[in-house]
Amino acid sequence: EFAALPTLDEEGDWVEMLSGAVAKAAHAVIVVDMLESGTPMVGANEMFEKLTGYERDSVIGQNCRFLQGELTEQEVVAKIVTSMRDAQELSVELTNYRLDGTSFRNSITLMPVRDINGLYCYSIAVMADVATMTETVMVELERLRVLLPRKCNVD
Prior knowledge:
- This protein is an alpha+beta fold.
- It contains 5 helices and 5 strands, in the order αββαααβββα.
- It has helices at residues 14-22, 46-52, 56-59, 74-85, 135-147, and strands at residues 28-33, 41-44, 90-97, 103-114, 120-129.
- It has a 5-stranded antiparallel β-sheet, sandwiched between helices.
- Strand 4 (103-114) and strand 5 (120-129) form a beta hairpin.
- The radius of gyration is 15 Å and the shape is globular.
C-alpha cells in the first residue's frame, strides 16, 4: 500500500524503508545507488522478480545491464544513461530480457532522488511490461510515480 511512503523522512536506512514501502506495490520498482561505481541496484521489490524472473538477492549489487540483449535499442539505453548522469526524470520504452531469455517491452520511468543537501544519491525506476498496460494499469503506474519520493533523509 502506498500509504507507507510518507514515512520515508524518519530516521533509519532510507533504502530499507523505501523497499518496505513498495514491497507489495503492483509494479516493479528498483533503486540504484548513484554514488557507487557502476550504479548498482540496492533495492528491488517482489514485482521486479515477477516481471524479470530474476531473484532480488541475485541482482542486488549489479548494474541493470543484465536486462539488455540483442534487440535492446541502444539509442534508448543512451537516453537512460544521459538521464541518470544528469539527474533528470525520464520515461521510455525498450526491449529487455527476462531470466528465461524471453524479450518484453519494458516501460521505464526513472526518478532522481536527492539527499537533504541536494546531492543526487539514488535513482528510482518504475518498470512495467507494456503488453499488460491497460488503462487501469497506466493510472496505477502514474499514481505510484507521483507518490515515490524525490528526496531522502540521507546526509
